[in-house]
Design goal:
Elements: H1 2-9, H2 17-29, H3 41-45, H4 62-80, H5 85-91, H6 96-99, H7 103-117, H8 119-122, H9 128-144, H10 150-162, H11 185-197, H12 200-203, H13 208-221, H14 227-236, H15 246-258, H16 289-295, H17 307-319, H18 327-338, H19 361-376
């Protein structure tokens, strides 16, 4: 208990009730052998390992993947006290086929709900970490419970108040950290997908009804500029008729299929015209092109493919109606089975490509790999 007291009373950390519950749970089971749903407190608070493409590989195992992402998502809430896209946010989308009865899935959801409840006293966080968790929790609730939970409805209510009349969230963080904190398109497509899954009892009345129409208008008037945008649009198209034309749909599917590597995987770096160490603000248009090419080279494209590129593209193609029996889908699934690392993850190099990056896109890549496997094995 002294450890918890020190953490709670430290000047640099405040823990929500669900987090304290997690810590107590960890202590209560710390004398037991390790299992996928429990860990010692020291494990939750220890630094993340530096993920590397050079980490050892091992035979394919769903349970090892589930253990890895369970631990990463729970640890994020304990260490950082927020919901973030690359780790415990996308974790909320994990497939029920593998996770519905795993205690960690409940713990991460409960943490997210407690964090949302704290907004009333602490104030709203940045726009993208209001909007994105609203979408993640919506998807989570529908997949796991079949209905929206109260905290999700509260988060969505705040989300609609921040939306512009044009349908996007202009204060979305754009720190040149693709694919999530790069531009306005990602947040709009993510929440549009979530609303496509939400029950009509919620989406047919305001504020959701007006908010959804605004998002659809935004997507109709802002053409997807990057491959990643177009893949997200294929996913959106699963829920909304006439948003994507038949011609665009076929062309975008073909574009994604054409990016498959000889290994059977896809590379995240192929999904956008993104650059390493991009300026935090101001873009590139005012800079000398030779200077840009030298100082801000394109992001790395792994010739073998990577976890996020392969998982995200495969899942987008499956949502677009490409059958699991398609030869290239089968090759991609085989890539996932061959390229799992020994600790359970599918590695992805950060698209920021900075020397001190932790490669946390690996977390999201692992989630998408599991989402694909849930539909194909």
């Amino acid at each position: 208990m002294l450890v918890i007291d020190k953490i709670i009373n430290g000047n640099d950390m405040r823990l929500a009730v669900p987090t304290i519950t997690l810590l107590l749970h960890s202590l209560s089971v710390s004398a037991e052998p390790a299992d996928p749903d429990s860990a010692a407190l020291s494990d939750y608070l220890a630094p993340y390992a530096e993920y590397s493409a050079d980490d050892p590989y091992a035979h394919f195992d769903i349970e090892r993947a589930a253990e890895f992402i369970d631990n990463a998502a729970v640890k994020w809430g304990v260490k950082h006290e927020c919901v973030t896209c690359h780790t415990n946010g996308h974790y909320l989308m994990v497939p029920p086929k593998f996770f519905k009865h795993r205690p960690a899935a409940t713990e991460v959801r409960d943490f997210a709900e407690g964090w949302i409840d704290s907004w009333e006293d602490e104030g709203l966080p940045r726009t993208e970490i209001v909007v994105a968790p609203s979408a993640f929790l919506t998807i989570n609730n529908i997949q796991m419970d079949g209905e929206l939970r109260p905290a999700t409805i509260d988060a969505l209510q705040e989300t609609w108040t921040l939306q512009s009349e044009e349908g996007h969230w202009p204060d979305w963080l754009k720190c040149e950290w693709p694919p999530f904190e790069q531009d306005d398109h990602y947040g709009v497509t993510l929440l549009t997908i979530a609303m496509g899954m939400a029950p009509e009892s919620y989406t047919s009345v305001d504020p959701a009804k007006t908010g959804i129409q605004r998002m659809l208008n935004y997507l109709q008037h802002h053409k997807p500029e990057e491959v990643h945008h177009r893949a997200m649009m294929l996913w959106v198209d699963k829920y909304y008729d006439d948003l994507v034309s038949a011609e665009d749909r076929e062309r975008w599917i073909g574009e994604l299929l054409a990016l498959q590597k000889g290994s059977g995987g896809w590379a995240s770096g192929d999904l956008g015209r993104w650059r390493q160490r991009a300026p935090e603000t101001g873009g590139y248009s005012h800079l000398d092109p030779d200077f840009v090419q030298r100082e801000y080279p394109p992001v790395m494209i792994d010739p073998n493919g990577d976890g996020y590129g392969t998982g995200f593209v495969l899942y987008s193609l499956l949502q677009a109606g490409v059958p699991a029996s398609h030869d290239q889908i089968k090759e991609g699934v085989a890539w996932l089975k061959r390229n799992q690392q020994a600790d359970g993850k599918w590695f992805t190099n950060s698209l920021r490509n900075e020397y001190d990056t932790s490669n946390f896109l690996t977390h999201t890549g692992t989630v998408f790999a599991l989402m694909v496997l849930a539909e194909t094995i």
